[in-house]
Automatic annotation (TrEMBL):
It holds the Pfam family DUF892. This is Hypothetical conserved protein. InterPro entries: DUF892_YciF-like, Ferritin-like, Ferritin-like_SF, YciF. Residues 42-76 form a coiled coil. Keywords: Coiled coil, Plasmid.
Length: 170
């Protein structure tokens, strides 16, 4: 593939990842505001929000290094859809579980995007971008692993709170 085409694929992928991370923030921030009975989830979400903000900065640095801008339109569109997705779970009696399921899936989606970007980066000779992309990938995989490792305990806590008549939703 010609170098220009690889560059175009890489830049579009970086812009998509930037928008994806903004979407992630628009999903996680409302979740964090609604969590009362699950401090361990709140702490992990808060940590991952900070990581996501760092991921956005890394992506912007890579784009800047290529003399490219982020796509404001994609950022806005995906942030809006993320906000709507987060809002959709607020009416569910098992909101905390639905959020965990959605977050688990989204973390894997993000990881796939970074694995693909790393492959394009390697094919195009964009070695300077690889460290930032690998850091983003590692954080997404770590969050997915945390959700995986804690989903059963979260579900049991939800059931326990519900049985006790407490608000189990958030």
């Amino acid at each position: 593939m010609p170098e220009k085409e690889i560059r175009d694929v890489f830049v579009v992928g970086l812009r998509n990842a930037h928008a994806m991370e903004n979407q992630a923030l628009s999903i996680m921030k409302p979740q964090l505001k609604r969590i009362d009975n699950y401090p361990e989830v709140a702490a992990k979400l808060d940590q991952h929000i900070r990581e996501t903000e760092g991921q956005i900065n890394r992506l912007e640095e890579i784009l800047d290094g290529l003399n490219e801008d982020k796509s404001t339109l994609k950022d806005l569109a995906l942030s809006f859809t993320g906000s709507m997705a987060a809002l959709g779970h607020t009416v569910a009696g098992d909101e905390i579980l639905k959020n965990a399921f959605a977050n688990f899936a989204f973390e894997h989606y993000e990881a796939a995007a970074y694995k693909s970007l790393l492959a394009v980066s390697e094919a195009g000779g964009y070695g300077a971008a690889m460290t930032g992309l690998q850091a983003n990938l590692a954080e997404e995989l770590a969050m997915a692993e945390w959700i995986n490792d804690n989903l059963a305990a979260l579900t049991k806590k939800f059931l326990s709170l519900r049985e006790a008549g407490e608000t189990a939703k958030v």
